[in-house]
Design brief:
The structure holds two protein chains of two kinds. Chain A is an alpha/beta fold. Chain A has one domain: TIM Barrel (Alpha-Beta Barrel), CATH 3.20.20. Chain A has helices at about 5-15, 40-45, 45-60, 70-75, 100-105, 110-115, 115-135, 145-155, 155-165, 165-190, 210-230, 265-275, 290, 295-305, 330-345; strands spanning about 65, 140, 195-200, 235-240, 255-260, 280-285, 315-320. In chain A, strands 1-2-3-4-5-6-7 form a seven-stranded parallel beta sheet. In chain A, helix 12 (about 265-275) links the parallel strand 5 and strand 6. In chain A, helix 8 (about 145-155) packs across helix 9 and helix 10 (about 165-190) runs parallel beside helix 11 (about 210-230). Chain A is globular, with a radius of gyration of 19 Å. The mean pLDDT of chain A is about 95. Chain B folds into two domains: about 5-80, Methionine synthase domain (Methyltransferase, Methionine Synthase (B12-binding Domains), Chain A, domain 1, Orthogonal Bundle); about 95-215, 3-Layer(aba) Sandwich (Rossmann fold). Chain B is built from nine helices and five strands, in the order H-H-H-H-E-H-E-H-E-H-E-H-E-H. Chain B has a five-stranded parallel beta sheet, with helices on both faces. In chain B, about 55% of the residues are buried. The chains are: A alpha/beta, B alpha/beta.
């Protein structure tokens, strides 16, 4: 078949239609490509965020590029995070400690979010990248899952204790987080995002039970994914951690793409979700060669991965979780090239 | 109340995550002159053992483990002043912490809870810990084991620095080093010369018990 555009390739794969090759995503943010570190200054600098995304697009030559736009949780909590060098920003101490704290939360409107310095930088970066790359390049944004966000605000241990002893309080907290996330999603899509990535490790079976997932997490995930669809974007859900016990529930999220960790065999996921949901992942960032291996090892690894897939559509090849900034760039380049080489000419 | 009933109350308190019941059982144990060590080992720790089994079989998840460990700690807090120190029965010591450059400590904390429940003396040095701080603590406490945790590939490289410093300081032979964390694999453990890697908290307890047995 003729060569598809990036967007056509991704859309066809999501719908399990024929593709010229499998789409490949890299994920990760690599400000070192423009000589910057991942820190507070970087995440408040729209031009730097945009230039990083554009450089990643140029160097990696994948089928989509991520443009980070965080900060909504800080607005909800009305609290500032700390900014370790080359690590994610975090609240060092819990900022939500009681029912009173939850009762006092004010869900920021779209307008209030857009006024925040960090949120605004992210949104401006999306606009810059969209203008530079045109309409054919899928841009990915971010909507952190409710339990991940709640854990940042309360501390994960305390969130787990609340879930065991006062689940209604967790529900109330997550309602505020979910509505904040929805408002941020709307802003990102308006700015030019096509695909919203929603990771939630803390609601995965690595932390809570499948029954707790059904009752306390799934409704929030469904609400955000519905909002992503209402805004006109594609939803990619990443239930990060030991996903098999909830794999039967993932279709209920109605996410377009289910992005699995290395704990789920991508070939098995294809067979479960064939013609229903696209599946993503396959590149094991823990035991695979992306971090510790070299380009030749990466090439051989990707060849084996793709040869083992029964279906050559309905699938996006990508790392099994986020990439840290110290993954060798040459390995990422080799990975993308290998996906293109070994899945070329794939139909179904 | 009979000894058996008090011990069962301890176990039930932990398995059900009932802190109040653990406190009640501890007070009853003291009033009945029940040996505090026996109460911890055959009551509270037995309960944590059951919780560990439930966690491994995915009957329990983190919320249940956290409230169980709080019940365990509530009982131990009351019993601890009454423990009679016995000659030659000191528990194995493990220093644990998250390596420098990494502030993520959920996994390390869970491992610490499970190790404590399994009878290890856990010396938690926290997160973002420098190689020197790890080595100093190992020397200061004569630890049998050192547990290093890292979530990020950016920080896991500091595990190697800890091992190098243990060698430089001449104490590598005295302590077994186990590593873990989301980014860690057996391959990495082999590469840096750690004594073991565990994929989760339950496996970490088994590994620690195995390493201590080998060293003994």
């Amino acid at each position: 078949m003729s060569t598809l555009t990036h967007k056509q390739r991704v859309h066809n794969a999501i719908k399990w239609k024929p593709v010229d090759r499998l789409p490949v995503f890299t994920g990760g943010t690599f400000p070192k490509l423009i000589g910057r570190n991942y820190n507070r200054d970087y995440l408040h600098d729209a031009d730097a965020i945009a230039q990083t995304a554009l450089k990643q697009w140029e160097v990696f030559e994948a089928d989509a590029v991520g443009v980070g736009s965080g900060g909504s949780l800080e607005v909800l909590a009305n609290a500032k995070q700390v900014w370790p060098e080359n690590d994610y920003p975090m609240f060092l101490e819990p900022v939500i400690k009681s029912r009173e704290d939850v009762d006092n939360l004010h869900v920021p409107t779209e307008e209030e979010l857009a006024k925040d310095e960090r949120v605004a930088a992210g949104l401006k970066a999306i606009q810059i990248v969209r203008k530079a790359l045109g309409p054919d390049v899928p841009l990915t944004g971010m909507a952190t899952g409710a339990f991940n966000s709640a854990g940042k605000l309360t501390g994960t241990s305390e969130l787990m204790r609340w879930l065991a002893q006062d689940p209604e309080l967790v529900w109330q907290l997550n309602l505020a987080i979910t509505q904040t996330t929805i408002n941020h999603v709307k802003l990102q899509v308006k700015a030019g995002i096509d695909i919203i990535h929603m990771p939630d490790a803390t609601s995965s079976p690595a932390c809570i039970s499948p029954k707790q997932f059904t009752k306390h997490a799934l409704p929030h995930h469904k609400a955000v994914i519905q909002a992503i669809h209402d805004a006109g974007a594609i939803a990619k859900f990443h239930p990060c951690g030991g996903e098999y016990p909830i794999i039967d529930q993932l279709a209920e999220t109605k996410a377009d793409i289910l992005h699995f960790t290395e704990l789920v065999d991508l070939g098995v996921a294809q067979k479960i979700f064939v013609q229903r949901h696209a599946v993503a992942g396959g590149v094991d960032i823990v035991t695979g060669p992306l971090f510790l291996g070299g380009p030749d090892e990466v090439d051989a690894y990707i060849k084996t991965l793709i040869e083992g897939l029964k279906f050559k559509t309905g699938t996006l090849i990508m790392p099994s979780c986020g990439l840290s900034p110290n993954i060798p760039i040459e390995n990422i380049v080799a990975y993308v090239k290998a996906v293109k080489k070994y899945s070329k000419g794939s139909l179904r | 109340m009979s000894k058996e009933l008090i011990l069962k109350k301890f176990t039930d308190a932990v398995v059900n995550g009932d802190e109040d019941l653990a406190v009640e059982a501890a007070n009853e144990a003291i009033a009945s002159n029940l040996d505090a060590t026996e109460a911890i080992v055959d009551g509270l720790s037995k309960g944590m053992g059951i919780v560990g089994e439930y966690f491994e079989s995915q009957e329990y998840f983190l919320p249940e483990v956290i409230v169980a460990s709080e019940a365990f700690k509530a009982g131990v807090k009351i019993l601890q002043p009454h423990i009679k120190v016995q000659q030659g029965t000191k528990p194995s010591k493990i220093v644990i912490g998250t390596v420098q450059g990494d502030t993520h400590d959920i996994g390390k904390n869970i491992v610490g809870i499970m190790l404590g429940a399994a009878g290890f003396e856990v010396i938690d040095v926290g997160r973002d810990v420098s190689p020197k701080a790890f080595v100093d603590k190992v020397k200061e406490t004569n630890a049998d084991l050192l547990g290093l945790s890292a979530l990020m590939t950016t920080s896991m490289v500091n595990m190697k620095k800890v091992l190098a410093l243990l060698n430089e300081e001449g104490v590598r032979g005295q302590v077994k080093v186990m590593i873990g964390g989301a980014a860690i694999s057996q391959r990495y453990a082999d590469e840096i010369g750690a004594d073991g890697y565990s994929v989760d908290a339950v496996a970490a307890v088994r590994l620690a018990q195995k390493l201590v047995a080998v060293a003994a």
